[in-house]
Design a protein that fits this description.
This protein has 196 residues and is an alpha+beta fold. Helices cover 31% and strands 25% of the residues. The chain contains six helices and eight strands.
Amino acid sequence: MKKPVKRNKKYNPNKPLPNPVRKFQFAGEAIEENLQMDLWQLLNGRSEHEGPELEHMLTMVKGDLVIAFRKGLIDSEQSFHIAYKIYAEHPNGASIELDYEIAVPERMTYGQFLCGADRENGEEPIYIMEAGLKTEWKGANNLMNDYFHATAGPDFKIVKQPYVVTCFSAFRNLACAREFKAIQLINLGNGLGVAA
């Protein structure tokens, strides 16, 4: 009987470590977040396209996706999914609660995902495949507003709108993964995922 051959595989320090795709999320409440952002821009003399530094941003939204984006640790173009919970009230006292979700397999920036292409600044329109047809992407916020007005009817006003944004991505490189872990430890409780 032959003896099994022992394999002598040595450690290679130059071999790249795996950089797996992982789930990134962040959650917030759109109405409150917009008010806080408007106030921050007004008090700091910033334009509507400028956002606060990471530490201030983490007081408005929770999750690890905001860390990865703000520090440029993952590609800016991703395939996103967003889930809204919409609470609305009517002046007569009636209230409704709606759910809305949308996912897009095409890769785009977060701004394009929310609002569509910025044609005023020369961006080309973005097209997606929808029910086998190529259609122009209007943006998740516009689609959610269309759904809300078609479902709720006239005179309903959104009073609360929590949401969760998700994407799956790998870090740009291992240095980005290490920086991400360090930032998570510094901001303990803000970037360690989203509570369900």
